[in-house]
TrEMBL record:
Organism of this sequence: Paenibacillus lentus
Stretches assigned to the PucR C-terminal helix-turn-helix domain: 307-361
SUPFAM superfamilies to which the protein is assigned, alphabetical: Homeodomain-like (SSF46689)
Protein name per the record: Transcriptional regulator
Residues annotated as signal peptide: none
Domain of life: Bacteria
Length: 370
């Protein structure tokens, strides 16, 4: 039964207007637990002062609720309406969710809880025993965070994305919707298998994480043509201790990547340590440094020199490799660097001057990015 048709039928039955309202899932949970503490988090209705609300649909962090003035209705009539509303999706007032629908529901529950802890800045919170997926999130896991650029991550189907990622990682995963991202947790067994095939070591492990991220990015880009999303990955974690704090770290990493590396879509926390430090500097201190630096910063308004210096620093100040990456002759690159030296007095081929210019570029980016 369509919601709009049901709405009209209810209006005829109770002889009063019925309104279709959208609210956050967490708001509905708080409301039902406060008014009806004996109900579970999937309570189908709540009676307030002179009015009643019935849950008629959920979608990630949002719920649809029918609201009406029911001060003249008996409790039994309110309950009968609740059963009628529940019938629109074939569920009872206390449904047992199973299969893919159950996975999506429990995913939404855990995602909503993580989002709430982030908003409360409760970063060390442990997973409540009341959340069913607590048993699914255990042992060492690999954390990924997907953030879409041009539209909400909620526009992507849970079922479709979950199936795609399960096929990529070759096993079960936990796909959790946050407010504007998808939080993905993968069992460490995948990384263990890769370790067995390669040399051990932190650098090698992080190279593997980077490669996994690249493959994941290409897979999703091929599925949703045009891409338009950013991806971050962290070191393996114990979700019992670091589920929320890691979500925060990866969210900050995506934000830093968007500011400092606008042409890249994959952002790794261990590659953005300097950017994180620069971002933490108060605005007044950043501005003072830029003013003291003077000419070098003004020269950065030139897109060509900015791109040249970015590439030069990415390739460890290697002139030959930078020229190859930029598809220019080595002498052309040297001419650009000499011209920059003439205009600023700083030679980026020397360590001291390179540090000054690199800091100036980062401060310039964060100042303009804000």
């Amino acid at each position: 039964m369509e919601i709009n048709l049901l709405k009209k039928q209810l209006e005829l039955i109770i002889k009063a207007p019925v309104h279709l309202v959208s609210m956050e899932l967490q708001e509905w949970q708080d409301l039902t637990q406060f008014r009806n503490p004996e109900d579970s988090v999937i309570a189908r209705s709540v009676v307030l002062e002179g009015r009643s609300l019935w849950l008629c649909g959920t979608h990630h962090h949002k719920v649809q609720v029918l609201e009406a003035n029911t001060s003249d209705l008996a409790d039994t009539e309110v309950k009968l309406i609740e059963l009628l509303v529940a019938s629109i999706d074939g569920r009872r007032s206390s449904p047992a969710v199973t299969g893919s629908k159950g996975d999506e529901y429990h995913s939404q529950q855990l995602g909503a809880w993580i989002q709430e802890q982030l908003e409360l800045e409760n970063y060390q919170a442990g997973i409540p025993e009341s959340l069913k997926w607590r048993t699914k999130i255990h042992g060492t896991m690999l954390p990924f965070l997907l953030g879409w650029e041009n539209h909400s991550a909620m526009d992507i189907s849970f079922v479709k994305l979950n199936k795609l990622l399960r096929s990529y990682f070759g096993g079960d995963i936990a796909l959790l919707p946050l407010k504007e991202e998808w939080y993905v947790l993968v069992g460490e067994q995948l990384l263990t298998d890769l370790r067995d095939e390669n040399e051990e070591g932190l650098d090698t492990e992080r190279d593997m994480l980077s490669a996994l991220s690249q493959g994941m990015y290409e897979l999703i880009t091929n599925e949703w043509v045009g891409g338009g999303f950013h991806l971050s990955v962290g070191d393996p974690i114990d979700p019992e201790e670091a589920l929320v704090s890691t979500a925060l770290l990866l969210r900050e990493t995506l934000a830093l990547g968007r500011i400092f590396h606008v042409t890249e879509q994959i952002h790794l926390p261990w590659e953005l340590r300097l950017e994180r430090l620069i971002y933490s500097i108060p605005g007044a201190q950043r501005q003072r440094f830029l003013e003291d630096t003077g000419n070098p910063v003004r020269v950065l308004d030139d897109e060509e020199i900015m791109m040249t210096l970015d590439t030069f620093f990415q390739l460890d100040c290697n002139v030959s490799e930078t020229a190859k990456r930029l598809y220019i002759h080595r002498n052309t690159l040297l001419y650009r660097l000499d011209k920059f030296k003439q205009e600023t007095g700083l030679d980026v081929r020397s360590f001291h001057d390179a540090v000054i210019v690199k800091l100036g570029m980062l401060l310039y980016k964060v100042t303009n990015g804000e």
